[in-house]
Amino acid sequence: MSDLNKLTLSEARDGLRKGDYTSVELTEACLTAIEGAGALNAFVHNTPEIAFEQAKAADARIAAGDAPAMCGLPIGIKDLFATKGVPTQAASAILEGFKPEYESTITTKLFDAGSVMLGKLNMDEFAMGSSNETSTYGNAVSPWRRGNEDTALTPGGSSGGSAAAVSADLCLAATGTDTGGSIRQPAAFTGIVGIKPTYGRCSRWGVVAFASSLDQAGPMTKSVRDAAIMLETMCGHDMKDSTSADLPVPNFEALLTGDIKGKKIGIPKEYRLDNMPEEIAKLWDEGAEKLKAAGAEIVEISLPHTKYALPTYYVIAPAEASSNLARYDGVRYGHRATLAEGEGINEMYEKTRAEGFGHEVQRRVMVGTYVLSAGFYDAYYNKARKVRTLIKKDFEDVFAAGVDAILTPATPSPAFGLGEVSEADPIQMYLNDVFTVTVNLAGLPGISVPAGLSSTGLPMGLQLIGKPWEEGDLLNIAHSLEAASGFVSKPEKWW
Ligand code: GLN
């Protein structure tokens, strides 16, 4: 059977069980697709030997009737996850040559469940960015094109390699991470599904830290059903992460009933931006109509502190990053600068960090150090923490009033051209996160679902925000929106 790489996780799982093909065949199909897709720069370290070994083991498990849902399914892993013996660079030059001695909890869970690792995926350096352009490997490229133009478009960021790989069918699914939108924005830009679970659902152990109070991992998949299947394998309590929640993990797939009758969906009025493109506003309105037609009740809600979310995020995230990134000092990991005669430890730190970190990372470290400095700590960092509490309370109030989920656009525009925003001032890039950062600040689950095409033929996504720990309910509402939207478009192959 050809085109096995085009299958969804659920299709491939069912086919494997019926004996229609083997995991080795699925793996071969994906590796061939990866080989032919160098122009997308999505995979940055391929691991075919590991993949075949895992695929053979998975085939044996399936034959023995001992196969969890993810068994035998080939996936890609974002370069932010520590993978034992396999380069893990967080797309940074400072981690050049770093091969962890350990496996992250999430990849351990995926591999224990029989998943097959095809390789590591491109991303923004240390997950800082919205376009994949801060990567030391060079940017990943979206498989999508704007109309008949051949302008190279961004797959979004920071999980841009994951998004490009899944939407171009180089793998069946991929891991992503989301600190301010890095799963949901690239998913929206490339017509796939991405869910950031509740903070504490997925272990952060072995995931290179960006901003620890915001970082969460999640799946990036071709359907909501696939997101449910993969999320279940990824989450669960982990003693090695003190912020990991000790809660049972539901069978998310079993909760996809498609029945959303009586669910109350909130439409936050503050998300209707003045300069919102007409087609995004229309997509949002139509999404609400579709949920209504499926039996949900649509209510207008207010999240009054939304306008402070971006500035709050861009104080808290850099503050935590400046602290987390202090460990890259040329002593413990990766790159170390060559010193001139007479230079000592201070020059070694300075030169190593100047050479190893890219500009955006340096900017974040400087902003973070500034807002945490004694003279400015109260004015910026502490103020931001207080505003964060208010943003969280906005959501708590709305949920307490009976709202089950909130519908918003996922991004303020469809994908832009590479260079189009990165060459403007950094604030333009930060504005990409306007609909997603609130969710990280409040620790809530959020999912992006492809919902339509722009006038230029690019995917556009809608975001659903759920109650804490209610990923099952959120996935079910997303499943209903997905069915009503009937999004089936794929990028036309040019690579
Ligand atoms: N684009 C945001 C940033 O640059 C979010 C990144 C992320 O979620 N990792 O910080």
TrEMBL record:
Residue positions of the active site: 78 (charge relay system), 158 (charge relay system), 182 (acyl-ester intermediate)
Catalytic function, reaction form: L-glutamyl-tRNA(Gln) + L-glutamine + ATP + H2O = L-glutaminyl-tRNA(Gln) + L-glutamate + ADP + phosphate + H(+)
Transmembrane segments: none
Amidase domain location: 25-475
Record keywords, A-Z: ATP-binding, Ligase, Nucleotide-binding, Protein biosynthesis, Transferase
InterPro entries per UniProt: Amidase (IPR000120), Amidase_CS (IPR020556), Amidase_dom (IPR023631), AS_sf (IPR036928), GatA (IPR004412)
Gene Ontology terms: cellular component: glutamyl-tRNA(Gln) amidotransferase complex
Region named Disordered: 137-160
GO-annotated molecular function: ATP binding; glutaminyl-tRNA synthase (glutamine-hydrolyzing) activity; transferase activity
Documented EC number(s): 6.3.5.7
GO biological processes: translation
Assembly description: Heterotrimer of A, B and C subunits.
Similarity comment text for this entry: Belongs to the amidase family. GatA subfamily.
Free-text function comment from the UniProt entry: Allows the formation of correctly charged Gln-tRNA(Gln) through the transamidation of misacylated Glu-tRNA(Gln) in organisms which lack glutaminyl-tRNA synthetase. The reaction takes place in the presence of glutamine and ATP through an activated gamma-phospho-Glu-tRNA(Gln).
Protein name: Glutamyl-tRNA(Gln) amidotransferase subunit A
